[in-house]
UniProtKB/TrEMBL annotation:
Binding site for substrate: 10, 27, 38, 47, 51, 83, 87
Pathway the protein contributes to: Amino-acid biosynthesis; L-phenylalanine biosynthesis; phenylpyruvate from prephenate: step 1/1; Metabolic intermediate biosynthesis; prephenate biosynthesis; prephenate from chorismate: step 1/1
Keyword Ubl conjugation tagged: no
Protein name: Bifunctional chorismate mutase/prephenate dehydratase
Single annotated GO MF: prephenate dehydratase activity
Chain ranges of the Chorismate mutase domain: 1-91
Chain ranges of the Prephenate dehydratase domain: 104-284
Residues in the signal sequence: none
Keyword tags: Amino-acid biosynthesis, Aromatic amino acid biosynthesis, Cytoplasm, Isomerase, Lyase, Multifunctional enzyme, Phenylalanine biosynthesis
C-alpha cells in the first residue's frame, strides 16, 4: 500500500475491473451453453419477453444499490447484444459445419481504415486468427475473394448520413460471390493530427470522400481548409503521420489514428448524431441460416418497363407478408434509363413464404437473382418493462 490515497483507490478500482472482466467471461461462456440448449430444443435465439423481464429486474436491483436505471439498462443491453450475437455465431458455425480457425479477409485500405476495423470485429467473433488483406479499390476486394486469394470480403454498403455506397452496389451486379453476413459499426469521425495544434492552424485535411460527405456541415465552418481525397481514411492517416505538420489533419477514427500515432483534436463531426455504417460480408460459398436465427435475404431484381411493373413486384412481398427493409435502384450499364433494384427483406430463403414469393416473382420480372441469405446482426435492444 502507498501513502497516496488516489493511487490506492485506483488500485482497488483496477482489481474490481479484473473481477468484472472475469464475470463477463463467465457469462459469455454461459451464453454458449444456452445456444447449445436452444439448438437441441429448436428454440429461437431471442426471447424478447425474457429480455424485458431481465432488464426490469436488474434496474430494480440496481436502484437498491443506488445505481442509475438508465446506466443499468445501457450496460445490460450491450451484454445481451453480445450474448445474442455469440449464440447466433455458434449455431451458424455448427449448422454450416464451418471449421476455419483462421480466415483471410479482404477490406478497403491499409490498417486503421473503418473497413479494417470492421474486418477485425467480424473476425473476433467468428475466427481465432485473422489474416489481413488490405486493398486499394472495391474491385480489388471482390477479385481477391473471387480468385481464392482471400476467404471473405468486408465492404461498406450504406451509411446513415451519406446513404448507399454505389460502387459496391454496382459490383454486386456481376459478382459470383454471396452475401454471408452483415454488421453495423458506429462511426465517430475525428480530426486527427500528429502534434498539438488548433483547428485554425490547419490548412489541409485528408480523407476518403465518404467522411468528407458525412461531415460537410462541420467542414463548412472552415472554408479555407484545402480538401484532399485519399483512397481510404487509413491512407489519409498515413499521409498525415508522414508529413508530421501542425498544418495538416486527417478525418478518421480514433482507433485507426492510434495505429499511426495520431491524436484526436475534435470528436463527433458527422452531420447526423447517429452515424452508422452497415457492412456486408461476402464469400464464394453461400450459407444456410438456421431456423432459430433471424435471417435477411438480399435480392437483385429487374422489372419490365411497363406502367406499374415495380408496384406489381412489390405487392408480391406484401401478399406473402415479407417485410422489405431496403429498396435501392441502380442503372443497368449498357441499357440507358433502365434500372436494377436491390431489396433487403426479413426472410429466410429456406422458408416456404420466401420460396413462394420467389416463384410468384419469376413470371413478372425480367431477371431475379439472390445475392445472399444471411443472419441479421441488427440486434434491436428492448427496454425494461415500465412499473
Amino acid at each position: 500500500m502507498t501513502d497516496n490515497p488516489l493511487l490506492n483507490l485506483r488500485e482497488r478500482i483496477s482489481a474490481l475491473d479484473k473481477k468484472i472482466l472475469a464475470l463477463l467471461s463467465d457469462r459469455h461462456g454461459l451464453a454458449l451453453e444456452v445456444a447449445r440448449a436452444k439448438q437441441a430444443t429448436h428454440r429461437p435465439i431471442r426471447d424478447k419477453e425474457r429480455e424485458k423481464e431481465l432488464l426490469s429486474t436488474l434496474v430494480e436491483e440496481g436502484r437498491k444499490l443506488h445505481l442509475d436505471g438508465h446506466y443499468i439498462t445501457r450496460l445490460f443491453q450491450l451484454i445481451i447484444e453480445d450474448s445474442v450475437l455469440t449464440q447466433q455465431a455458434l449455431l451458424q458455425q455448427q449448422h454450416n459445419q464451418t471449421t476455419l480457425r483462421s480466415a483471410r479477409i479482404a477490406f478497403l485500405g491499409p490498417k486503421g481504415s473503418y473497413s479494417h476495423l470492421a474486418a477485425r470485429q467480424y473476425a473476433a467473433r467468428h475466427f481465432e486468427q485473422l489474416i489481413e488483406c488490405g486493398c486499394l479499390r472495391f474491385q480489388d476486394i471482390f477479385s481477391q475473394v473471387e480468385t481464392g486469394q482471400a476467404d471473405y470480403a468486408v465492404v461498406p454498403i450504406e451509411n446513415t448520413s451519406s446513404g448507399s455506397i454505389n460502387d459496391v452496389y454496382d459490383l454486386l451486379q456481376n459478382t459470383s460471390l454471396s452475401i454471408v453476413g452483415e454488421m453495423t459499426i458506429p462511426i465517430d469521425h475525428c480530426v486527427l493530427v500528429t502534434t498539438p495544434t488548433s483547428l485554425n492552424e490547419i490548412r489541409t485535411v485528408y480523407s476518403h470522400p465518404q467522411p468528407f460527405q458525412q461531415c460537410s456541415q462541420f467542414l463548412n465552418g472552415f472554408p479555407d481548409w484545402k480538401i484532399e481525397y485519399c483512397e481510404s481514411t487509413a491512407a489519409a492517416m498515413e499521409k498525415v503521420a508522414a508529413e508530421n505538420s501542425p498544418h495538416v489533419a486527417a478525418l478518421g477514427s480514433e482507433a485507426g489514428g492510434a495505429l499511426y500515432g495520431l491524436q484526436v483534436l475534435e470528436h463527433n463531426l458527422a452531420n447526423q448524431q447517429q452515424n452508422i455504417t452497415r457492412f456486408i460480408i461476402l464469400s464464394r460459398k453461400a450459407v444456410d441460416v438456421v431456423s432459430q436465427v433471424p435471417a435477411k435475404t438480399t435480392l437483385l431484381m429487374a422489372t419490365g418497363q411497363q406502367s406499374g411493373a415495380l408496384v406489381d413486384a412489390l405487392m408480391v412481398f406484401r401478399n406473402h407478408g415479407i417485410v422489405i427493409t431496403k429498396l435501392e435502384s441502380r442503372p443497368i450499364y449498357g441499357n440507358p434509363w433502365e434500372e436494377m433494384f436491390y431489396l433487403d427483406v426479413q426472410a429466410n430463403l429456406n422458408h416456404s413464404d420466401m420460396k413462394n414469393t420467389l416463384e410468384d416473382l419469376k413470371p413478372i420480372t425480367r431477371s431475379l437473382k439472390v445475392l445472399g441469405c444471411y443472419p441479421s446482426e441488427n440486434v434491436v435492444p428492448v427496454e425494461p418493462r415500465r412499473a
